Amino acid sequence: EYWWCTERALDWGPGGGPDLIVDDGGDTTLLIHEGVKAEEEFAKTGKVPDPSSTTNVEFQIVLELIKESLKVDPLRYHRMKDRIVGVSEETTTG
Question: Quick one: a GO biological-process term for this protein (predicted)?
Fold first, then answer.
């Protein structure tokens, strides 16, 4: 559910999307970076991410989300990347 919710938070409908990511713990940023990487590979070779290529269960879920996204919109993460102007992480210790 967590990764699905993270991915859904990025869906603002046609032409929309975030221009700033705040306090995501790096997860949304990771999803977008990996999505862009997968879209580039897909455009060059037609290959989609293979969730079984990793033993990391969390990353398997990320790859599966990206794989499904490619079927619907093979440039979704590229448009997000182009729109985002900044990422901020707020961490409080002590």
Answer: S-adenosylmethionine cycle
- In degrees rounded to 5, what are phi and psi of residue 90? -110, 115
* Tokens representing residue 35 in the block: 């999505």
Spatial contact of 61 and 55, defined as CB atoms under 8 Å apart: no
Report the SS3 class of residue 38: helix
**C-alpha span between 40 and 42 (Å, rounded):** 5
Contact indicator for 84, 21 with CB cutoff of 8 Å:
yes
For residue 88, what are its two tokens?
A: 């901020």
pLDDT in tens, the chain (94 residues): 899 999 898 888 877 888 988 876 688 999 999 999 999 999 999 999 999 999 999 999 999 999 999 999 999 999 999 999 988 877 666 5
Contact 43, 74 (CB under 8 A): yes
DSSP for 31-59, written as a single string: HHHHHHHHHHHHHHH-----GGG-S-HHH
Q: Tokens for 19, please give them.
A: 């221009």
